[in-house]
Write a structure and sequence with these properties.
The structure is a single chain. This protein is 41% helix and 20% strand. The protein is α/β, with parallel strands linked by helices. A 7-stranded parallel sheet has the order 12-11-13-14-15-16-17, with helices on both faces. A 6-stranded mixed sheet has the order 3-2-7-18-19-20. The chain has a 5-stranded mixed sheet with strand order 5-4-1-6-21. The radius of gyration is 23 Å and the shape is globular. Bound molecules: zinc ion. Zinc ion binds next to loops.
C-alpha cells in the first residue's frame, strides 16, 4: 500500500470517528485561552462562548458566561487554543478535481492552448459521480475549518445546489454552501474548444449558460433562479458587453442575488465595474483608477492566490510521484525503465513551465504588487482559493486553506488575511448578519488553532477544532465533557 493510500485511509477513519463523535446538544459552552475578533483585531483572553442549538447566545469572560449556562450544559474546554470564526472560502469549485497532467503533447496536437482534458471529462462524466466527488471535497473542506464556501461554477446544472441541500438536510457533512448553478458566459472563451460540432451545444449546456444579448442574459439568470441558486456567477471576457452584463445584474438583483464576475483583463474588469457587479473575482490586471472606481461603488475585490508560490510545480511533482506509485512496474523493479521515465517527465515539465522558477518569480512579484495596490486603494476585499485541483497526498481542505497564508507572503498583514476569509467574506456574500464573527445571534461556526494566527498565519493550516451550526465536526484538542 502506498503512502497516499495509507494517508487517505487514515483521513477516512479519522473523519468517521469525528462524525460519530458529534452529539447534538441544545446548549454547549466552549472555553478557550484566546478568542480573536477579526473585525477589531481584539483578543479576548480567556474567553467562553455559549451556544444554544445552532446560534451563539453569549460571548464573554468564562466565569460570567458559565454562570448563565443551564445545568447539564455540554462543556468543551479547548485549553490555551485560539478561537476564530469559521472560515469562509468565497471562491471554490467543489465538484471539480482536476489532475495536473503532462499533456503538453496533447495540447500541441489539438492546436489549442485552452484544451484541458480534465475539465471536459468532468462535464461528460456521470453527474452522480461528480456530485459524490463534490461531497468528499465538501467534507474535507469542513475538516480544515471552512464552515461556509461560495461555489462559483463547474458543477453541472444542479450539482452544487443539490449538494448544498444534502448538507443542510444532514445527509452528508460539509460547509454551508452558497451555490451559483451554471456560470453565465459568452460563446468563444470556454475551456473546451474543438468539440464535435454536432454535440457541442448539448455538452456545453451541461456546464454553462450562454449570453448572446441582454434578453438571453436575463433568461440565463432566471434559469438559475429556477434551480434555486444563491448567487450568480458571470465570466466576463472582452466580448461581453456592458448592456449584457447589466441585464444579468439587474435580473439578479431583482431576485435578491449578488453577482460575482470573473474578470482578469482590464477591459473585462471595466465591463464588470460599469455594469454594477457586486464582486470582481481574480482581477489580476486591475489598474489603480479601476480600484478607485470599485471603492467608490462599494464593490468587493476577491483575491484568488491560487497559483502563488510554486503551487503548480508542487502539484505537478506530487502528481508524478502518485503516477509512479500507482504503476507497480515503475517502482524500482526496473531501475533503467524508471530513470527513462523520470527523464521524460523532466523534459515535459521543462517544456510545460518553461523555467518554473523564473515563471513563478515573475508571477509572484506581480501578485505582491496587486496585494499592495488593493490594500492601499481602500477597496473592500475578500479571498477565495479558486480550488479545483487534485493535489495527491493532501485533502481538498488542506489544499484550499494552504492558499491563504500566501497572501501574507505577498505582503498582506495576518489580520487582513483572516478578515478576508471571515468578516469581509461574510459581508461580500451579504451574510454579515449571520456569519463571519463570534457574536450573539450569529451561527455557531467556530474554529480553533493551537497557536497565535497573527504571529504565525500558517496556524490556519492546522485547525484543531471545527464547529458548524453548533455541532462539533472536529476536535483534536479535547473530548466533550459534561458539567
Ligand atoms: Zn474559479
Amino acid at each position: 500500500m502506498n503512502v497516499c493510500r495509507i494517508f487517505s485511509l487514515a483521513v477516512g477513519i479519522f473523519a468517521a470517528t469525528q462524525l460519530a463523535a458529534q452529539s447534538p446538544s441544545p446548549t454547549t459552552l466552549v472555553k478557550a485561552g484566546r478568542l480573536l475578533d477579526p473585525r477589531s483585531g481584539n483578543v479576548r483572553s480567556p474567553a467562553a462562548v455559549l451556544i444554544e442549538k445552532d446560534k451563539i447566545k453569549e460571548v464573554g469572560e468564562p466565569s460570567r458566561v458559565q454562570a448563565n449556562a443551564p445545568a447539564g450544559v455540554n462543556m468543551i474546554d479547548l485549553g490555551t487554543a485560539t478561537l476564530l470564526p469559521g472560515l469562509i472560502d468565497s471562491h471554490t469549485h467543489l465538484l471539480m478535481d482536476d489532475i495536473v497532467a503532462p499533456h503538453e503533447a496533447e495540447r500541441a496536437r489539438h492546436l489549442n492552448g485552452g484544451y484541458a482534458p480534465a475539465q471536459l471529462l468532468a462535464i461528460v462524466e456521470s453527474p452522480s459521480k461528480r456530485v459524490l466527488i463534490g461531497a468528499q471535497a465538501a467534507r474535507e473542506d469542513l475538516e480544515s475549518g471552512f464552515t461556509t464556501v461560495r461555489n462559483l461554477g463547474h458543477s453541472g446544472i444542479d450539482g452544487d445546489t443539490e449538494l448544498r441541500d444534502a448538507i443542510n438536510a444532514g445527509r452528508v457533512p460539509g460547509p454551508r454552501i452558497l451555490a451559483c448553478g451554471r456560470k453565465l458566459e459568452t460563446r468563444g472563451e470556454t475551456y473546451v474548444q474543438n468539440l464535435n460540432a454536432a454535440l457541442a451545444d448539448a455538452i456545453l449546456q451541461q456546464e454553462f449558460l450562454f449570453i448572446d444579448g441582454a434578453d438571453s442574459a436575463r433568461e440565463a439568470v432566471r434559469q438559475n433562479v429556477f434551480h434555486n441558486v444563491d448567487v450568480i456567477k458571470v465570466t466576463a471576457e472582452e466580448n461581453l458587453t456592458v448592456p449584457e452584463l447589466a441585464a444579468a445584474v439587474g435580473e439578479a438583483h431583482r431576485n435578491h442575488l449578488k453577482v460575482a464576475v470573473h474578470a482578469v483583463d482590464k477591459i473585462s474588469i471595466q465591463t464588470a465595474i460599469d455594469a454594477g457587479a457586486d464582486s470582481i473575482e481574480h482581477g489580476n490586471d486591475i489598474t489603480d483608477e479601476q480600484l478607485k472606481q470599485m471603492r467608490d461603488k462599494g464593490m468587493f475585490f476577491d483575491f484568488t492566490p491560487t497559483s502563488y508560490g510554486d503551487f503548480f510545480t508542487r502539484v505537478f511533482e506530487a502528481t508524478i510521484v502518485e503516477d509512479l506509485t500507482l504503476r507497480p512496474e515503475r517502482r524500482g523493479a526496473d531501475e533503467a525503465h524508471r530513470q527513462r521515465y523520470n527523464d521524460l517527465i523532466q523534459q515535459i515539465r521543462n517544456s510545460w513551465l518553461k523555467s518554473p522558477d523564473e515563471f513563478d518569480e515573475q508571477d509572484n512579484q506581480r501578485y505582491n504588487s496587486l496585494v499592495q495596490r488593493v490594500l492601499k486603494s481602500g477597496v473592500k476585499f475578500a479571498a477565495g482559493s479558486d480550488m479545483d485541483w487534485h493535489y495527491p497526498g493532501k485533502t481538498r481542505g488542506q489544499t484550499s486553506v494552504g492558499r491563504f497564508p500566501t497572501l501574507h507572503e505577498a505582503g498582506m498583514p495576518s489580520l487582513d488575511v483572516i478578515r478576508a476569509i471571515t468578516t469581509n467574506a461574510a459581508e461580500m456574500l451579504g451574510w454579515q448578519d449571520r456569519l463571519g464573527a463570534i457574536e450573539t445571534g450569529k451561527f455557531a461556526d467556530l474554529v480553533a488553532v493551537a497557536g497565535d494566527p497573527i504571529a504565525d498565519i500558517t496556524e490556519l493550516e492546522r485547525v484543531r477544532f471545527v464547529m458548524k451550526d453548533g455541532k462539533v465536526f472536529r476536535n483534536d484538542i479535547q473530548e466533550n465533557q459534561s458539567k
